[in-house]
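Standup, Tuesday
Yesterday: got the pipeline producing structure tokens again.
Today: sanity-check two examples.
Blockers: none.

Example 1:
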Amino acid sequence: MHEMSVALAVVDQVAEAAERAGGVTAVRSVRLQVGELAGVVPDALAFSFELACAGTLLEGAELVTEAVPGRARCAPCAHEWAVGMPPRLTCPRCDGTRTDLLAGRELQILAVHWDDGGPPHAPTREPISEER
């Protein structure tokens, strides 16, 4: 299950950030940006996240996902459109096939809220690495 490897990567990255911050007693929530074209099933990710958090500093943390719709731009005519699912990658205006995907592949941690007496923390916006 792809979502389990994503969830494990998120837990690892948040736990490492909490350890570097020092004094973190618990992680309350993790907010992720998930692109429509990232190949992630939100319900499966939520289930996997709960399992991955068990026995860690993140146990009981809420997973909040922010969906990012897929968007593309036609190189020849510069028209932009929502690609939808399944994705339409040919231009609806000119039928051009030279298109650039502008959004929809995102998979990154946007913010983490943990207990350390301070405000929510926003890590750098780097893609989630599934390497373990």
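Example 2:
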Amino acid sequence: MKKKSVLLIMLLFLFQNVLAQKKREICVIKTSLGDITVELYPEKAPITVANFLKYVETHLYDNTSFFRSVTLKNQPKDSVKIEVIQGGEIDSTKVFKPIALEKTSVTGLLHKNGTISMARDKPDTATCSFFICINDQPSLDYGGQRNKDGQGFAAFGKVINGMKVVKKIQQLQPDQEQYLKPELTIFTITRVQ
């Protein structure tokens, strides 16, 4: 009887892992410096992933840009420094409603090197703009000190190919400014799986 129970538990665990793998979504961000492939986690951050994919499926990210690069050198007034590139800002008349903040304390998705996350002002205000972390950024997690509200940002996936491109984009930025001039074109973001 014990062997059957153990076997049943192992089969259930295997089945859950197969289902979890099928729930992953893969998107390719095509830029003028190369492609960035991201894996999204709808089972952990369903609201955020659905929001991102809505912009992808309606092609609203096409011909947008990476417009901001935050380095350790270009944030002199910030006591808590981060390293990210930010993109995906679209025409304000086409933005969907803001989404609820899926906190890292709930999702378990932390702001590690290569994490993709939604930009926001106050909690529950994220719309289209997203960022990618360069190196681990724990100050962006729930309880982190980057924002005074301590709620962090909604991580929802990670770069699985193209971190060299992410770093090239970050290096385009002069030391004193965060906003890229010219911005780096995002030709398309497409869902491939």
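Quick observation on example 2: The longest strand covers residues 179-191. The chain has a mean pLDDT of 90.
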